[in-house]
Specification:
Order of helices and strands: EEEEEEEEHEEEHEEEEHEEEHHHEH
CATH topology of the largest domain: Rossmann fold
CATH architecture of the largest domain: 3-Layer(aba) Sandwich
Largest sheet: 8 strands, mixed
Helix content: 25-40%
Strand content: 25-35%
Distance between the termini: 36 Å
Radius of gyration: 19 Å
CATH class of the largest domain: Alpha Beta
Structural class: alpha+beta
Length: about 300
């Protein structure tokens, strides 16, 4: 049954139920509908992308199907016959939504974020870097989660604004157990993977928030925080842009560079050296809280 859902400041009407998202009564900014996309060729795929222009992109993912994103307001889905609905939702709420936000002029970063009393702390990193684990650990300490895996920033707003994503964090079983959760009772995100969904109950931010700090995660021998110059901060933001491999094909790379430069000039970007051990997590969270100098929102 169609529904209206809220994610990253957008109202989404979708033929696929999206139970991770809050519902709302508002005219849809984005429509997700079914359609036949089989006439597109499957050649020259880059990270699943078959075709990309500034206003249109087509993706093909094995086990899911084809997804056409266009104009920043429409997604057409042509699922394979045995596609698991959980898999479709993961693609819709991940790369599809990330590219759609890019089409709408947002700076989209690969990261997770929590809210402090003065603004948002965002943690950027490659898959497996620990950004969701850090966000979940801070959430356990009272910091409301704002986004996971995808951080959408309106760089034209002054100050820059982050629209909250939706109330869910994705954790590996060992990270969930290390944080005191029971992974055996947490929903599996997709049938062929072990990652679990941490469903966040209670208050979840809905209004735009302003970034306070942006941390770029790197592996280190010890936990440490290193301030970056605006130039180096820009490079980190570009490196962690959510759909970086597709930006050039879209013709969006120059605009992305300008957005990253503008954000790094206005918001502190720091390199977060992380000792990759769940036993070192409490000390890492202590270090982050000390650097933030700001209580939970």
């Amino acid at each position: 049954m169609p529904g209206a859902f809220l994610a990253h400041g957008l109202s989404i009407s979708s033929f696929i139920p999206l139970p991770e998202l809050r519902t709302l009564d508002r005219e849809a900014d984005v429509v997700v509908k079914a359609g036949d996309l089989a006439f597109f060729s499957a050649s020259e795929s880059v990270d699943g992308c078959l075709h990309a222009t500034p206003d249109e992109a087509l993706f093909l993912w094995e086990g899911a199907g084809r997804f056409l994103i266009r104009g920043g307001n429409e997604v057409i889905v042509d699922p394979v016959g045995d596609a698991d609905e959980r898999v479709l939702r993961l693609y819709l709420l991940g790369p599809v939504l990330g590219l759609l936000l890019q089409q709408r002029g947002r700076l989209v970063l690969h990261g997770s974020a929590v809210a402090t009393a003065s603004g948002v702390a965002a943690f950027l990193g490659e898959s497996g870097a620990g950004k969701s684990t850090i966000a979940a650990g801070l959430h356990r300490r009272g910091y409301p989660a704002v986004a996971d895996d995808l951080v959408s920033i309106d760089p034209a707003h002054e100050p820059p604004a982050i629209d909250p994503g939706f109330p869910l964090l994705k954790l590996w079983p060992d990270a969930a157990a290390g944080l005191g959760y029971d992974p055996l009772v947490m929903p599996i995100l997709r049938p062929d993977a072990e990652k679990r969904a941490l469903e966040l109950h209670g208050d979840f931010p809905s209004a735009p928030l302003h970034p306070l700090r942006i941390y770029a995660i790197t592996t280190g021998e010890t936990n440490a925080i290193e301030p970056l110059t605006p130039r180096d901060g820009m490079i980190e933001l570009m490196r962690h842009s959510y759909i970086a491999p597709i930006l050039e094909r879209m013709g969006a790379a120059p605009a992305n560079m300008m957005q990253c430069a503008g954000l790094a000039a206005r918001v502190p970007v720091l390199r977060l050296h992380v000792h990759r051990s769940i036993t070192a997590l409490p000390a890492l969270l202590d270090l982050i809280e000390q650097d933030l100098g700001d209580p939970p929102r």
